[in-house]
Amino acid sequence: MGFPDPFRRLLYRTYERNLLKDIRQAEVPQHVGFIMDGNRRHAQARGQLPWEGHKLGSDTVEALVEWGREIGVRTMTLYAFSTENFDRADHEVDQLMGLFATRLAELAKDNRILDNGVRVRVLGRTDLLPQHVQQAIQIVEAATAAHEGSRLNFCIAYGGRQEIIDAFQKIIAKVERGEMRREDVDEKVLGEHLYTGGDDPDLIIRTGGESRLSNFLLYQAAYSELFFTDVHFPSFRKVDFLRVIRSYQQRKRRFGK
Q: Which of 48, 136, 187, 209 is the most exposed place for a label (fewest CB within 10 A)?
């Protein structure tokens, strides 16, 4: 027989407090990338429509941002929609676009974002997005442009290979204009021309049971620590997040040395 719900909640709260205590005694990853996978399978397993899973996933995003802020994560980069996702059924894409527009507009007025100086950006080929989503992006980015506390990046209409191509095109244009010499182009310069501006993730987490990057931060992930979990993103809990952080702290990063 399982524990009653109130007792189970008490156990989880106690476990969370102990994890937080352990985590605060070691170095926390400053940039966390997150592949938020499993929304549709979560919905399917419950007899729900795909976009109901995405709605539940967007609720988890709000909690995830708070968990990261609580332990001192400086940057979170969340993989929300790839360029390949445009190939999904039209009605599912439309539902997702509406959800993006609504959530981004809400962030522009969210006191947790405004009071804590969080800068929100959307990374990707945003020109491919519907106009109402582009307008919501402009609103939230303008509202948080001067913030210097931490960063929250959403990758929407994003692809890692496309990001590298876009970076090279920017560099080539500068070389052609005489603003940069070809021999000056190195890893640092390329990184600075990526959407993330040279800010590489220390840690990348993927939910949903798959063990691949799926075209996410391909260049930046060269020395990132990778964690994969079977938990569908809408079911991802604070205790799951803290466990990953603690496991990250137990690893020894060598950066190829």
A: 187
